[in-house]
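Submission sheet (multi-component)
Chains listed below:
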Amino acid sequence: MPVAIQRPKRWDRPFGTDMTDYIIQRVLDLAPLNQINPENFPRSATLADILKNDARLRKYSRGDLITRQGDYGSSLYVVISGEVAVAQGLPETQLGRAHYKRKRVLDVLRQIFRNKNIPEVRDPERYDSETFKISTGEYDSTDGSHARLENVSGVLKDFETFPIRAGELVGEIAALSRTPRTATVFAVEESELLEIRWQGLRDIRKRDVGFREHIDTLYRERSLATHLAESPIFRHLSKDSLEEIARETVFETHGDFDWFSTYNIKNDAERNNVLGSEPIIAHEGHYAEGLILIRAGFGRVSRKANHGHETLDYLARGATFGFDEILHHWKTGESLALQTSLSAVGYVDVLRVPSRQIEELVLPCFEDELPLKEEYDEKRHTGHTKSEHVKGPDTGSLEQLVEGRYINGAATMLINTERCVGCDDCVRACSAAHDGNPRFIRHGRRVGAQMVVNACMHCMDPVCMIGCPTGAIHRNPAGGQVVINDDTCIGCQTCANSCPYENIRMVEVRDSSGAFILDASTRQPIVKATKCDLCWDQAVSPACERACPHDALKRVNMGDTEQVEEWFSR
Amino acid sequence: MNTPSLRNFLYCVAFFFVAFAVGLADLLLDLAFFDSSYFSGWALTSLIGLLALFNIRKRLPFLPLGDARTWYLIHIVAGLLAVFVFLMHTNWTTPKGLTERLLALFFCLVALSGLLGTWLQKYLPLQLSRRGEVVIFERVPRLVRKLRENIEDEVQNSLETTGSSTIVDFYQANLLRFVSRPYPSWERLFSTSKRNHRRRANFENLDRYLNEQEREIMHRIAELVSAKEEIDYQYTCHLVLKGWLFIHIPTTAALIVFAFVHIAVVHAYIAFS
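Outcome: structure written.
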């Protein structure tokens, strides 16, 4: 007899349980939320509804940590009362970071007997439980306990901090760019903060232009300052010099933030001409106006080759473009036009620091570390110095990796087809680690001798998370893996449709007898999104990579050039 | 030296070191008038146990027992060592007695199938990869069915558009069986297939009796047939890659059973003599 349950809906389980009408009205009377026009919202999802279901009021005592630098999180915080401070580079010992909770050997042994022969078995009672935990993507503190800084006065004295007071926002950089938190935020005194999860923030941004512009402006201002401070190239600079650079630096966004929506519909002909449709950030042959720093997203470095462009490299967050040309001018006094072009792959945020600033403030600090003129000239003429060997993906493979946007993957599953014997040990291992359900398909696009397998790549820019109405798909705070909370997934398929790589599968779930769990009203099966979770909770991970006896499979971080080169050159 | 080469080199060194140590121990025992066959016998039993553990490790991927790659390399090195110790144990001669001979036969089968399998696992994936898209073994029947449907559509089309049954007859006589299911083509694994040549010759013979319209249809059918030949080749490779284990694993099981019998007999003989 099939079990029937109510089909899960977006706001079945609100983000917080304490958002009463009084609290909602209270926060709506305060800046900046009082600037939002409630008329812009439809009746089906009013501003009050969004705050009721996608926000929660959090109370913090002095020293309580609100966000930690390096953690993953997608919530925006509005300071309702009190004061919080933003700091960078606090010692790890002070942050009380939780340890990775993996299964113990006993749990794993139990797992051997617990694995089912029936696919996608779930406990239907779990979906009705009131005592479930909402995963926010950040360390949970719904019980009121928080990680805490022991020595707030010391931190305020020894580290540069930035105060955020009532009516101000914090946390927008990670929320908008889907990157780890760039700073630690802690309460300086008793404070109340409204935490709006990404799903609510997304809807408010969509409906209210003023709020969106306010957030975007903050994002640009703070992101610029944060990135400059983080960049190793500016590490020798004094605070005054850094401020001077920040004043002159231009923040630019190129490409389409929602690049994934059009990515899948590109046909082969369009794909072959994909470079033509990419916005050019810097043109080959043009004067190097400034040093370009990649803030978020990816850039393609290419040069003209007959009637097309040859891809030479791709740049991810933290990389720079145009340094050699500026260095040449500084060393020789001769202008050197850009030797390559830089274009936006999908979307990219860049900072453009004027060349003059680099030459006057930055390069003199590096005098001893920069290559000698002869070495530099050799590199410029040959493309690489004598000691450097050209390794890694060939041009064709590189083109395919960039064009397919596989460079987005932080754990892309690559199978070397020259080694793979098709034994399926990887699939069996994955299945064994996931209750008998493999979470990937050993199939995918060929790039040279490598197969880019249909397995979640745990993207650096996980666009699958953007549209999730419940926040079920989120970054695991422990390791940054993109995971799905099965309890809060409502089976809307938004993530599966957003994933440009088709790596999320919707499955019909069953009870332990093998019968489908049905929607009580429509009698249709309940579906859930499933994907690779990189075995984050297993005793050892990832199971697929560890199970390959032929050294044919590896989860590769495509942002790590050395790792990519090593794997492709084997 | 890159990491995999260094790792392989270290495994080679380990092999020679352990082989030398076992050989030396065996020699010293002989010189001291001890029966060294007990030492080599138990060393061989231990090695066989270690080799058999690899299969158990494969079934427990979620336990922290080291990665399969390391186990595989240890399996190969231990397998080669086992051959060396086996030859020492038999004093480099043919064993006497039925049980011992059967035991030796199973050991040889296991060792040879293991060596063959190791070589096939290096050779065939390389061959498959260089042919372009690698077909998934489980999808072969579906692909063949699709190809057959496409070919039959073309054949039907020829009958309807030309009114001639030449292509239909050709299909029934030469292709129907070939496209009905995946056919392993063993000879193509290492050389060019005679059957495929004959099939192409039949296509060429038929060509002289066709008009332009039929020729176009036959051209499309020939392309589909080539695709089927490619699938058959890959199907054969996959069968071989999976099939050698059907010799290696059952013979290993038989070897373990006979090894226990051998140990029991030897110890019973000592106890009662």
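Remark: Chain A has three domains: 15-101+148-228, 233-382, 395-568.
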